[in-house]
Design the sequence.
């Protein structure tokens, strides 16, 4: 995480900020930090010396809830003035009250996610706005928590689905797409600020624009529809002008996603699809109430690979969902092998408080869920390792994330196949030519010499 502290002046009030959770929560944090800085507050990542602390929480799984509640407790103990925002802030506790207030009654304010305005109101109440805002100190792209060379771009908030294991719609509400002009303007500011990889995120990226009937917006004097295809094509064309990458996350396999694959083959957007499938068996998908559950995903993925052979498919799955039989689980193992999923993550099913799936019949015992998760990962990792090995000898474009020793000693980067934080890496050996140096945030060509676990080893040239 990059340092977000600003020093506008000795008298500026200081807000400590802790950001927990997924990339969607991270973009909420960035909006709040941007607003704080625009109004002349200092921000820091620690509680020390802060006049007030904001904790942006995650409420998705039980471990995340615990981490969020512990962080709030620490902030209260060390600082005392704490505002809570994010998904956990929207969760009900026992008897219907607010969970955070029940656990930590002394917090100053609690808001749900995507609530910059409410958070700022609470900050104004408890730590009045400085007189002389240092507007000029805010960079045009806003404050980012990611390194300078990549950034998340949130295109919508909320979700129209009601997957039975998920409580996100009750916390974040139904789908609200951002106007396409705003999204593209933000993308351009990010590229102008040096971003070389733009990661498009939302709860349901494929559904972009559904809520506004794909309304036509304007950007750069031209009409553009708020629709995934138009968004991706325009973003890709824009990125090309800056020599940057665009990567798509949380893409449900609705039929119109097929139209995006030729854009990948053309090189407008990275040939990488993060498709959260969660399972393969139609009955389990029905019990999960998954979007696009009727799609024939094996055939779809095969067709995508025909159109764009280098496409990398990442997905996440749940093992041990209530009622999952051994045969249904075996179906999932076969699917991962047949579909040749390049990168797979798997959770053992964990009942989230308030989720409809908790009421389903035949819960799978804890130990069996865990055992299935481990069996799944063994199969998925073998597929993944095999696919990685096929890259040995290939030449890849690598975005350099770190380059110690003035870039002469090698470094670490990622290819189109690796999203930051969740996938593997390309470990760069010292460059072949003595005259070459690696620079963070720049691309290099590299020849793959070996595969190791989730990573590749490559020689830059
Ligand atoms: S699609 Fe399903 S899992 Fe994803 S946010 Fe919506 S309800 Fe939750």
Sequence:
């Amino acid at each position: 995480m990059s340092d977000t502290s600003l020093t506008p002046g000795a008298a500026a009030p200081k807000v400590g900020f802790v950001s927990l959770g997924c990339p969607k929560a991270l973009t909420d944090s960035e909006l709040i930090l941007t607003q704080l800085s625009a109004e002349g507050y200092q921000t820091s990542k620690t509680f020390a010396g802060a006049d007030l602390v904001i904790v942006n929480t995650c409420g998705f799984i039980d471990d995340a809830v615990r981490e969020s509640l512990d962080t709030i407790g620490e902030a209260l103990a060390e600082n005392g003035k704490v505002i809570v925002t994010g998904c956990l802030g929207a969760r009900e506790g026992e008897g219907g009250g607010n969970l955070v207030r029940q656990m930590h009654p002394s917090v100053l304010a609690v808001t749900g996610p995507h609530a910059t305005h409410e958070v700022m109101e609470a900050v104004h109440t408890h730590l009045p706005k400085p007189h002389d805002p240092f507007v000029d100190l805010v960079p045009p792209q806003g404050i980012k928590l990611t390194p300078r060379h990549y950034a998340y771009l949130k295109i919508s908030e909320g979700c129209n689905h009601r997957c039975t294991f998920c409580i996100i719609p009750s916390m974040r509400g139904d789908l609200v797409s951002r106007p396409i002009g705003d999204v593209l303007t933000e993308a351009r500011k990010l590229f102008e600020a040096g971003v070389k990889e733009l990661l498009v995120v939302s709860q349901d990226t494929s559904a972009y624009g559904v809520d506004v009937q794909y309304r036509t917006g304007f950007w750069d004097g031209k009409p553009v529809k708020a629709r995934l295809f138009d968004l991706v094509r325009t973003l890709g064309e824009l990125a090309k002008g800056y020599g940057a990458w665009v990567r798509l996350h949380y893409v449900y396999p609705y039929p119109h996603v097929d139209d995006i694959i030729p854009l990948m083959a053309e090189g407008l957007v990275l040939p990488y699809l993060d498709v959260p499938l969660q399972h393969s068996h139609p009955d389990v998908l029905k019990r999960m109430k998954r979007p696009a559950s009727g799609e024939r995903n094996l055939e779809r993925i095969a067709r995508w690979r025909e159109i764009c052979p280098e496409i990398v498919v990442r997905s996440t799955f749940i093992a041990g969902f209530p009622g999952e039989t051994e045969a249904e689980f075996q179906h999932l193992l076969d699917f991962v092998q047949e579909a040749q999923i390049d990168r797979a993550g798997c959770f053992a099913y964990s009942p989230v408080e308030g989720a409809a799936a908790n009421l389903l019949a035949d819960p799978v015992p804890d130990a069996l869920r865990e055992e299935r998760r481990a069996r799944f990962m063994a199969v998925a990792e073998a597929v993944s390792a095999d696919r990685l090995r096929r890259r040995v000898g290939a030449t890849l474009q690598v975005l350099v994330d770190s380059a110690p020793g003035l870039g002469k000693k090698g470094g670490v980067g990622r290819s189109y196949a690796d999203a930051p934080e969740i996938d593997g890496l390309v470990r760069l050996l010292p460059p072949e030519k003595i005259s070459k140096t690696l620079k963070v945030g720049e691309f290099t060509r590299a020849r793959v010499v070996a595969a190791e676990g989730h990573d590749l080893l490559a020689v830059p040239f």
Residues 159, 161-163, 166, 168-169, 203-204, 291 surround iron/sulfur cluster (CB under 6 Å). The longest strand covers residues 443-452.
